[in-house]
Amino acid sequence: MYYKIEKDRMEETTMEEWEKKADGVALFTSADWEQAVQIRASYLLEQSRDHLRFCKLESYADFLFGTLHIPHKRHEKQNVGFAFYILENKLIFIDDTGLVKNSLEKVTAGKLRKGYNVERFLYDFLLSLIEEDVLYLAEIEKDITKMEEAILAREVEDFNYRMLGLKKEISRRYRYYSQLTDLGESLFDNEMDFFGKDDVATFRIFADRVTRLQSETQVLREYAMQVQEVYQSEIGIRQNDVMKVLTMVTTIFLPLSLIAGWYGMNFVQMPELHWTYGYPMVIALSGVIVSVCLWIFKKKMNS
């Protein structure tokens, strides 16, 4: 598919007209691209398949070659990857996912800004990749906040599993934004002078926006760590409560164990063994000891 950009509009065209026009965008599938290009370009495409897990931009003698790897939201194993070439006034995508096609259809459906060109389209396309990411990061923050509230209410379940999923998602977004920042800065550097000086500044704006998203992701990472520390503290408090109860029980029954051990010696000369009221006396003594211990514990807890 070939698109031409002229008179502030972008519309589909033929290959012959696309090559004649000053500004144009082309979209190929990987199979169509391998049939259409020369051996050198085909070799680069083969090399790119091993790097579609990264967002990067490489400079060559007469073109720029890049790959974009876009992680799906909430789906770790479902990601989008495609390659692109940047020539002078031309932009070529190799995509089998349909993402680029959808973006092209959105652009061609509306009226473009005055002086629209390939640089402006690339800027708009890159922005479309991150336009809803602020809302997505806000959703992650809400999830972390809910987990924090559940911890304080002692209603959280499967905390470690859920927090691990959130931390993995945050790390994926952080790496993605870091790579996008490098890609935007490389476009801004404009080493091959493919972009006009008046339009190249837009890539700096894109890089700054991605940097802010990266900073927001770092904040979420730190927030997740703080919530995990709160959870560990809550676990420690619960363990202390359990140990407190065990200590109280042990303290109460320790003197009772002493009495039981003392009268369990069964010496012949122990007068209580043959005393009629010996058994009730031991019961009463044990009750008094338990009552005194409970009174002391209650007094200590209230003071």
From TrEMBL:
<dbReference type="InterPro" id="IPR002523">
    <property type="entry name" value="MgTranspt_CorA/ZnTranspt_ZntB"/>
</dbReference>
<dbReference type="GO" id="GO:0015087">
    <property type="term" value="F:cobalt ion transmembrane transporter activity"/>
</dbReference>
<dbReference type="GO" id="GO:0015095">
    <property type="term" value="F:magnesium ion transmembrane transporter activity"/>
</dbReference>
<comment type="function">
    <text>Mediates influx of magnesium ions. Alternates between open and closed states. Activated by low cytoplasmic Mg(2+) levels. Inactive when cytoplasmic Mg(2+) levels are high.</text>
</comment>
<dbReference type="GO" id="GO:0005886">
    <property type="term" value="C:plasma membrane"/>
</dbReference>
<keyword id="KW-1133">Transmembrane helix</keyword>
<keyword id="KW-0472">Membrane</keyword>
<dbReference type="InterPro" id="IPR045861">
    <property type="entry name" value="CorA_cytoplasmic_dom"/>
</dbReference>
<dbReference type="GO" id="GO:0050897">
    <property type="term" value="F:cobalt ion binding"/>
</dbReference>
<dbReference type="GO" id="GO:0000287">
    <property type="term" value="F:magnesium ion binding"/>
</dbReference>
<keyword id="KW-1003">Cell membrane</keyword>
<comment type="similarity">
    <text>Belongs to the CorA metal ion transporter (MIT) (TC 1.A.35) family.</text>
</comment>
<feature type="transmembrane region" description="Helical">
    <location>
        <begin position="245"/>
        <end position="265"/>
    </location>
</feature>
<dbReference type="Pfam" id="PF01544">
    <property type="entry name" value="CorA"/>
</dbReference>
<keyword id="KW-0812">Transmembrane</keyword>
<keyword id="KW-0813">Transport</keyword>
<dbReference type="InterPro" id="IPR045863">
    <property type="entry name" value="CorA_TM1_TM2"/>
</dbReference>
<protein>
    <submittedName>
        <fullName>Uncharacterized protein</fullName>
    </submittedName>
</protein>
<feature type="transmembrane region" description="Helical">
    <location>
        <begin position="277"/>
        <end position="297"/>
    </location>
</feature>
<keyword id="KW-0460">Magnesium</keyword>
<keyword id="KW-0406">Ion transport</keyword>
